[in-house]
């Protein structure tokens, strides 16, 4: 019997956390909901402006009086269903609530604060409010405010000067006219306001005018690894780790979100239709695409793609590559993305480690925390010295890129003038690091396909980010069977 789209969505999107390797939505009844700990009186919740809306759910900003036994009023985000929600949609939100109670608290996860489940009103899930939106859109807005180190950022702030000039002229400043298609409080919902509107309302601390540096990018990567290390320790598999599902809070803290209902995959172009299910194909490991197997190690693969997003300042993964059968097959055969624009050799090597063909050979999140922590410390010590990011791995006509497993030593030390080469456009001049290559490993990249790549506007977005519908994908072994969970 064919399932409804809502049921399929719940099936696919639940986090798996189960000693019997059963999707959590099937064992949700086993998880308790402690009303004495989490129940919050609706009359103490004042709903405010809409932050996002989806096919059957919405997120609103709210003021909670006395939540978590606080004597003050706290700004929160409230997830709730739209009027006329079905029983399966109610179950999806209740499942999300139980997942959040099970996971517990961590700085780098969007934490549960309370819930309204009693009869007499709508089901509400109250979570932390992250005022700066999702990481993908934030990084895109910072492309003119990125500097390699703090020293350069302190001396050059052209975008800030431009914005101040616009203000003096009475114009409304906009950061690259970026508008968000992701939820402000929880990604997957369409935002009700553009990023520039949010900036105007929320930027009393000047956050959006501040430049970001390489240290910030490494810090975001480190924090996400910490959050995922925590989730994996709780035997939780996320299955949709991406920059759109990372929220930015105060003090430059990032938090992992999207535990179930939060995604509105039926409107989000990052999700590719495969049969009756939509999948975040660009972020999925080969074993998830072909065999529907999810594990902490498939989350590690997705983390590698997330790193690519971060160090390309919100770029769309696999730029210009069509999401079709050939893409999936080439990915399975070992073809990978080249280094992102601002990826250092160390960072790119971490990505390649995360994209290892054998899931067992991919690093654990604990190892990634250690590696990123070391890089963060090294970057702080190095700040102010000159170095060039590896924004283009040395690539020949064959389309092979080269990675070096061991070039941490000396990479930040001696500055040698780097050669320049153009990737085709006069405006797109790239640089390579002039470091000594050690133990060269040949990595075939998708870039060799781009000269012959074509796109059909009926099926693809201009940037090739999604396939809306293609019979080719139906040839894979994806069926309506449940996802397989493998707990490491």
TrEMBL record:
Domain Protein kinase: 45-376
SUPFAM superfamilies according to UniProt: Protein kinase-like (PK-like) (SSF56112)
EC annotation from Swiss-Prot or TrEMBL: 2.7.10.1
Membrane topology: Single-pass type I membrane protein
Coiled-coil residues: none
Binding site for ATP: 79
Keyword Transmembrane: yes
Record localization: Cell membrane
Catalysed conversion reaction: L-tyrosyl-[protein] + ATP = O-phospho-L-tyrosyl-[protein] + ADP + H(+)
Record field: compositional bias (Polar residues): 177-189
Sorted UniProt keywords: Angiogenesis, ATP-binding, Cell membrane, Disulfide bond, Glycoprotein, Immunoglobulin domain, Kinase, Membrane, Nucleotide-binding, Phosphoprotein, Receptor, Repeat, Signal, Transferase, Transmembrane, Transmembrane helix, Tyrosine-protein kinase
Major subcellular location class: membrane
Superkingdom, taxonomy of origin: Eukaryota
Sequence ranges of Basic and acidic residues compositional bias: 163-175
Entry annotated with the keyword Phosphoprotein: yes
Record region (Disordered): 163-200
Biological processes per GO annotation: angiogenesis; cell surface receptor protein tyrosine kinase signaling pathway
GO molecular function, one term: ATP binding
A single GO cellular-component term on record: receptor complex
Protein name according to UniProt: receptor protein-tyrosine kinase
Organism in which the protein naturally occurs: Carlito syrichta
């Amino acid at each position: 019997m064919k399932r409804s789209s809502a049921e399929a969505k719940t099936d696919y999107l639940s986090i798996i956390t189960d000693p019997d390797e059963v999707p959590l939505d099937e064992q949700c009844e086993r998880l308790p909901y402690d009303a004495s700990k989490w129940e919050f009186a609706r009359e103490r919740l004042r709903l405010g402006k809409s932050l996002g809306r989806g096919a059957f759910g919405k997120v609103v900003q709210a003021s909670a009086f006395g939540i978590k036994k606080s004597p003050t009023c706290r700004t929160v985000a409230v997830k709730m269903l739209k009027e006329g929600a079905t029983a399966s949609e109610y179950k999806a939100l209740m499942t999300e609530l139980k997942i959040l109670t099970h996971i517990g608290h961590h700085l780098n996860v969007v934490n549960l604060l309370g819930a309204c489940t009693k009869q007499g009103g709508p089901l509400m899930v109250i979570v932390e409010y992250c005022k700066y939106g999702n990481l993908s859109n934030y990084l895109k807005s910072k492309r003119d405010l990125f500097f390699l180190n703090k020293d350069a950022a302190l001396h050059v702030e052209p975008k800030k000067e431009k914005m101040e000039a616009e203000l003096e002229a009475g114009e409304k400043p906009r950061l690259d006219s970026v508008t968000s298609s992701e939820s402000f409080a929880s990604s997957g919902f369409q935002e009700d306001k553009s990023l520039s509107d949010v900036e105007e309302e929320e930027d009393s601390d000047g956050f959006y005018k501040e430049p970001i540096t390489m240290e910030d990018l490494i810090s975001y990567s480190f924090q996400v690894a910490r959050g995922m290390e925590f989730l994996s320790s709780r035997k939780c598999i996320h299955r949709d780790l991406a920059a759109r599902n990372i929220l930015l809070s105060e003090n430059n803290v990032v938090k992992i979100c999207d535990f179930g209902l939060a995604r509105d995959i039926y409107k989000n172009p990052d999700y590719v239709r495969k049969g009756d299910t939509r999948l975040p194909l660009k972020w999925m490991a080969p074993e998830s695409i072909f065999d529907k197997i999810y594990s902490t190690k498939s989350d590690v693969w997705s983390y590698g793609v997330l790193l690519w997003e971060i160090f390309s300042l919100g770029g769309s993964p696999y730029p210009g590559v069509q999401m079709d059968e050939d893409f999936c097959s080439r990915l399975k055969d070992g073809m990978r993305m080249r280094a992102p624009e601002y990826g250092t050799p160390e960072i790119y090597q971490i990505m390649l480690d995360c994209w290892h063909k054998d899931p067992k050979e991919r690093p654990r999140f604990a190892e990634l925390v250690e590696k990123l922590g070391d890089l963060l410390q090294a970057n702080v010590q190095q700040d102010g010295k000159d170095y060039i990011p590896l924004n283009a791995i040395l690539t020949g006509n064959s389309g092979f890129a080269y990675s070096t497993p061991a070039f941490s030593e000396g990479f930040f030390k001696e500055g040698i003038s780097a050669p320049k080469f153009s990737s085709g456009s006069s405006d797109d001049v790239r640089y390579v690091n002039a470091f000594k290559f050690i133990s060269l490993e040949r990595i075939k990249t998708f870039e060799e396909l781009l000269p012959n790549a074509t796109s059909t506007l009926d099926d693809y977005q201009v940037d090739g980010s999604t396939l809306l519908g293609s019979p080719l994908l139906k040839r894979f072994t994806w069926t309506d069977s449940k996802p397989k969970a493998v707990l490491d």
